[in-house]
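A favour, since you know our structure tokens better than I do. What I am after is a single protein written out in full by you. Could you add the entry underneath, on a fresh line?


***
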Amino acid sequence: MNIDFITAILLDGIFAAVAAIGFAIISNPPRKAILISALLAAAGHAMRYFLMHTDLFTMSIAPASFFAAITIGLLAIPFAKFIHCPAEVFSFPSLLPMIPGMFAYKSILALTKFMHTTDQEASLKYLVEFFHNGSTTIFVLFALVVGAAIPVFIFHRQSFTATRSIKLLINNKPPK
């Protein structure tokens, strides 16, 4: 690994962290959860970048996204226990920067071009582009959902923590 590759991984993680902060702020979580979302997004996106660009693995985007989502899900469990907040509060905003928007855009663009062309050869090209980019989008989204859900299912008790106030309200006692 050279310095340029390490720099690219770090920059990828930093940009994902910035995006995750924006996505996290929308749902108005506790301040600690916003920083954890940024940390998890940076770790997950850096993991995906590493798996896609290293000579050791060189995965395509769908399996790399799956392993990155599992990483985010596994890291979210201890943080959930630490700040007494459900893991989903910061794992979902951390996953959003990994949504394959460019593939979705290219598939819709190819579909639009397919509908407007009369040339047989171009129609076939656009149709193949549509299915390639659309299936890539679907597989990456599926990988993100399944990868984030697996740790929640494995560590079910740890992932759904409640604060003391919520526990007291459930037991019909007012919080002090």
Remarks:
- Residues 140 and 158 are 27 Å apart (CA to CA).
- The two ends are 55 Å apart (CA to CA).
